[in-house]
Amino acid sequence: MSSRPLGAPLKALTDLDHRIEAAVGRSVDALWEQCDRGLLDEPHIRLVEAHRALVQAVTGVTFHRTLLGRLAGGEFPVDEALLERIDRTVGLLEEAAGTRDERQRATVAVLERVEADAPRANAAGVELSAPDFAALLAIARGAHLRQHLLTSQLSVVTSSGTRIPPSVLDRLEGSGLVERDTSHPVIAGQPVTLTDAGRTTLTGRRPEGAAATPPPPRAGAWPAPQVRK
Question: Per the confidence metrics, is the pTM higher than 0.70?
Answer without folding.
Answer: no
